[in-house]
Specification:
By secondary structure, the protein is of the alpha+beta class. The protein has a single domain, classed as Alpha-Beta Plaits (2-Layer Sandwich), CATH 3.30.70. Helices cover about 25% and strands about 30% of the residues. The chain has a 4-stranded antiparallel beta sheet.
Length: about 100
């Protein structure tokens, strides 16, 4: 049985990490759920690159952070914040694709 990251994580959010990067936080209030996601390996640079249509090299950070019971992911923005082609100047609407990641039992 699988479930989505949305059902397991307490908070999934995104925000700018400067004008050229977006950072994502995936936080859990249950260490068992965090460990389930961590052991599954579904949060990895290749998956993030696929979801955000960037090169794997553009995934700058993708790692669990045990003390916070969270994952941290940072990617290069395809265009700078505020650029004429930018669709989300604050980077706060970019977390949605993460919610649908399926996590096996």
């Amino acid at each position: 049985m699988t479930t989505t990251l949305l059902d397991l994580a307490k908070v999934i959010r995104s925000k700018n990490a400067g004008p050229f990067e977006v950072t994502f936080d995936i936080m859990f209030d249950d260490p068992a759920k965090y460990e389930r996601v961590k052991k599954s390996g579904v949060i990895n640079a290749a998956r993030i690159a696929e979801l955000y249509r960037v090169r794997v090299d553009d995934v700058l950070v993708c790692r669990p952070y045990d003390p916070a019971v969270a994952f941290k992911v940072t990617i290069r923005r395809p265009v700078g914040s505020g650029d004429i082609e930018d669709r989300d100047v604050y980077g706060c609407q970019q977390h949605v694709p993460l919610m649908a990641i399926e996590v096996p039992a």
